[in-house]
Amino acid sequence: MSVRAGVVVTGTEVLTGRVVDRNGPWLSDQLFALGVDHAHTVVVGDRDDDMLAALGFFARQGLELIITSGGLGPTEDDRTAEIVGRFQGREMVLDEATEARIWEILSGLRTRWPHLDEDAIRRANRKQAVVPRGAAILPPVGTAPGLVVAPAPSSAGSRFPVVVVLPGPPRELQAMWPAAVETAEFRAVLAGASSYRSKMLRLFGIPESEIAATMRVAREGGVDLDALEITTCLRRGEIEIVSRWEPGADDVYRAFEDVVRSRHADVLFSDDGRSVDTQVADMLRSSGISVACAESCTGGLLAARLTELDGASEYFPGGLVTYANEAKSELAGVPASLIAEHGAVSEEVAKALADGARAALHAEVGVGITGIAGPGGGTEGKPVGTVWLSVSRGDVDPVARLTRRVHLPGGRADVRDRSTTVALHLLRRLLMGESDAPGERAAEPSAAAAGEPSGTHGPAATEGGPVGDE
Amino acid sequence: MSVRAGVVVTGTEVLTGRVVDRNGPWLSDQLFALGVDHAHTVVVGDRDDDMLAALGFFARQGLELIITSGGLGPTEDDRTAEIVGRFQGREMVLDEATEARIWEILSGLRTRWPHLDEDAIRRANRKQAVVPRGAAILPPVGTAPGLVVAPAPSSAGSRFPVVVVLPGPPRELQAMWPAAVETAEFRAVLAGASSYRSKMLRLFGIPESEIAATMRVAREGGVDLDALEITTCLRRGEIEIVSRWEPGADDVYRAFEDVVRSRHADVLFSDDGRSVDTQVADMLRSSGISVACAESCTGGLLAARLTELDGASEYFPGGLVTYANEAKSELAGVPASLIAEHGAVSEEVAKALADGARAALHAEVGVGITGIAGPGGGTEGKPVGTVWLSVSRGDVDPVARLTRRVHLPGGRADVRDRSTTVALHLLRRLLMGESDAPGERAAEPSAAAAGEPSGTHGPAATEGGPVGDE
């Protein structure tokens, strides 16, 4: 029997997108690890009826577990605890131990922020200590306690759904989760859970329709794909194939993966969950090679992405953001004459930026990016989305290079973000020993060198384009 | 009468968070502009039953309009059109005009990517042209047509809910939206919609509990807050207060805003929807002042944020990412002795980075950021989250400066992101003419200068902390 759960994310600010929900996805991973099937996430605004409707929807679907995030704060629009209490048929009571505990937490705060309205704090304290009678209370991480609330014994007689009430800030929600799982109510739910296996394959440089074809080939070759749950998606220009199956279907999955491997050997870059970011970081760390970048249109995004991972200082001394042409010349040593002759968005300038980054930061490897992110600045010959990227490695003789032009779809943010993905894949290939033949011009990149179909449109040109739509 | 809508976002990759949904929030804004109330967003995985359950939930809620995004692609798990057809009681038929249209679009593709499997493309073509009989067909932006599907005349007799079926890629969905709104089916829904007004106030430098107190003060002062729909949230360290009301309640809103203004004059920085990013950009552009940055812990994020906006080249020549100490010295001219004496994370180094950025990029204003983003590197005196920020302006005599130390909560990504928010607010205040008294040390920032309560904990230290929990 499989146990199913639903997540309710509260907050008009999430519904309208002013805040991106990080809790639904995080909870999805946790549920998966516990063998619980995540059926739905519902985002609701701050209205009692909408929240109640979502809880009712999940209950009617027969879900055994409901997790809510948000709505435990001190303001009047934070009403989750009360609504869940009503839903489960439990009256609200002040829990004095919890009130005292919160007051203790707030004392430190009152010392640090002496000008705050004490009355406001005291009310917030009390509000957050009013809970459904008989609920399991999870100790606060901030000031809000969490709750695990089973239906009142007097209601329909079912022990399900159990509702887990967690605070909205991801840091608090995540810290509180283990305590929620340990409650008797949660354990009762888990008694029926089964286990799954899953694996993710990542590919870069083909359209999604090719995966559809590969799935048909597998099916025609006798692989029972119905035993697998396979989803494919395009993310930041890469295709992810995620498969999930019950332990008995291990052989089916292996057969499917074999078909993917044989058809897409040149573009399958990850089969162990590692992103290209992690792969590049691991290669740099293990080889002792350092990388620097000089960015124009990406404006620092590649440097920011390279330093997202802890420990980046081992291989990343720094970077240059050379937005103005003068900065390209003065900081990265790109001759002004080169810019005048070929334009700032050109193969020559991309190469010079890569070399200049190496020189300025004393790094073995340099990355240069120059392009037109839009919305303005495009021309017929160089439309918005045209980006030149070059990576070069100076600790070998002759200097090893990979240089590509891509035409990226989408708006300014898409073009900038996608450029960093292309740069990381070029960096990965360079570190694996690939390089352009010396003297070769890069205007027509070869298919083999970057794992992309031939033609001037690079791999990332396809998302949202005519193939791989969706 | 108010018209209510629900959004169904499909895709296991969204449910599990591998892809962040941008369509729900975008659609929410569009619905709001049309006077339609956005009640729920449901995220469902790629399973027919879950999708049908979500549609049924919305129908039972009495929603007049349902919008789906995703599931129109060429792979086998893309099943939205068929499920919506079944839900509305309409059989699926091949639309030959649409098939021909898609084939035309694909021809360009086949020229550009000659090695693709032609059979795969032809099947994808046909699949995407099979639609519910009688549905309004929206011309493809990629290859997938959109649909507007009313219930079949033979079903229960209601004209609602109308289901609008849109592709998943935000670029396609957004481009297709106007055509959807123009259909007769959609217009029939809009006939019942009313209009709302809304306004957003942004504050920086107080905990959220203070807003709760302000709302009580307003209520006690006779402001009928029940006539307003008010939501508050913390986003990137700032508080947003969004109010929505029907036209008759204009006076109530004005009275509420007056209370907020009188209590929070020093921290209310935006009342016209402009973000601090836009305010800074506007001030730089109108004054002809340029800004450069030298970043350590943020690793390029501030430069990336400054160049997010189109036209940044008018005031942003570039930046330095000085991760290694040698880079701080060589590129930003920070004396190695200064680093040795005070440490890389110090007031002195932050100031020197700001000045060095100005000098290296020939900018009037410089920003320096140096801190400990974690998870490693913290000490007792400088724990993870300690960040020194300095802004300086060299076109006035003496040089104007604002320098602050903050202790930011959360993980590595939070500390890095929040640092850029603090930097932008310092930049804003500097451009508005504020500066520290010459010779003043910044270790104990004054409350007035940065709009924050006194003490060494800066404004952004509060999110997820003991106050403003949620």
TrEMBL record, chains A, B:
Domain MoaB/Mog: 6-188
Region (Disordered): 433-470
Matching InterPro entries: CinA, CinA-like_C, CinA_C, Competence-induced_CinA, MoaB/Mog-like_dom_sf, MoaB/Mog_dom
SMART domains assigned: MoCF_biosynth
Compositional bias ranges of the Low complexity kind: 444-455
Family per similarity comment: Belongs to the CinA family.
Name this protein carries in UniProt: CinA-like protein
Species assigned in the record: Capillimicrobium parvum
